Amino acid sequence: MSAPRVAVGAVGVALMGVGALLLVEAGDVPDVLVWLAGAVLLHDAVIAPLVLLAGLLLVRGGARGPVRGSLLVAGALTAVALPVLLRPGRPANPSVLPLDYPRNWLIALGVVAAVTALWRLGRRLARGRGRPDG
Question: Which of the four, 22, 62, 85, 101, has the lowest number of CB atoms within 10 Å?
């Protein structure tokens, strides 16, 4: 193992220790443990089975790489946007979340869908002209 890797790993472990110390000092350990347990349960009981089921259905349905890739990107966009999408009501300070995040999330998903559709159309046209698929 190289010296820079060991140094970066040591810094990471030290920062995790600082975080744990701050967490204990703030007295938030029970809240964080409940949140972490909930996240693990949500992932293992809901998200992972749904992703596996969707993947199985897509493969059996003949979906190719671009479609599966676009669904992966859409899932990642949704995971990143979820905290803002689930936030109820308007924030007390309008400068905290100044944009229309649900609309922007939908626009991003639309762009992903449009790029995927164009990609598939281009591949279909290329196949129709006798060119190799690619």
Answer: 62
Distance CA 122, CA 129 (A): 11
Closest C-alpha to 74, from 108, 99, 42, 49? 108
Helix 101-128 × helix 65-86 angle, to 10°? 180
CA pair distance 25, 18, nearest whole angstrom: 11
Q: How far is CA 14 from the centre of its chain?
A: 27
| pLDDT tens-place string over residues 79-88 | 888 888 887 7
- Helix 29-42 and helix 3-26, axial crossing angle in degrees, nearest 10: 120
CA distance 134 to 127: 9
* Spatial CB neighbours of 29, under 8 Å, sequence gap ≥ 6: 23
Could you give phi then psi for residue 95, rounded to 5 degrees? -80, -10
Q: How far apart are CA 108 and CA 116, in angstroms?
A: 12
Q: What is d(CA 108, CA 80) in angstroms, rounded to the nearest whole number? A: 12
Q: What is the pLDDT of residues 1-25, one digit of tens each?
A: 799 999 999 999 999 999 999 989 9
